[in-house]
Amino acid sequence: MARTLLEEMGERLKSARINRKLTQMEVYRLTQIPTDTLLLYETAQTEPDLVTLSKLADTYRVSLDWLITGFEFHSGSRLFTAEKEVRRLQKIIDEQAHMLKTIQQVINGGANDSISAKCLGS
Questions:
Q1: Which CATH number fits the domain 5-69, given the four candidates 2.60.120.10, 1.10.260.40, 3.10.129.10, 1.10.1740.10?
Q2: 83-98, pLDDT tens digit by residue?
Q3: 10 Å Cβ neighbour count for 29?
Q4: d(Cα 34, Cα 114) in Å, to the nearest integer?
């Protein structure tokens, strides 16, 4: 017999809880979701709303995408790529700021000859 989407989500909820080594009572303490309600979700007798699913995803340290669909959409990899690009751009900005400071020192006559030569490429 084919399982329904709700049954599949219930199984994911239960396996995520077990993988985190949490009892239903511990989940209740962390989320304030009653244990009888949690049992209804895990046995596919009722469907949790989005806010509840979000709480459970955070508690179980899984993605909301995975809880709902069973698939991971790797939004985290896009975040990692974006953070890496921000660090790269920040490094460029820092290097340019250092170069501008050196040029200002040369213009103001406060730098010694070695800094001036380094800045001018001599």
A1: 1.10.260.40
A2: 788 889 999 999 999 9
A3: 11
A4: 71
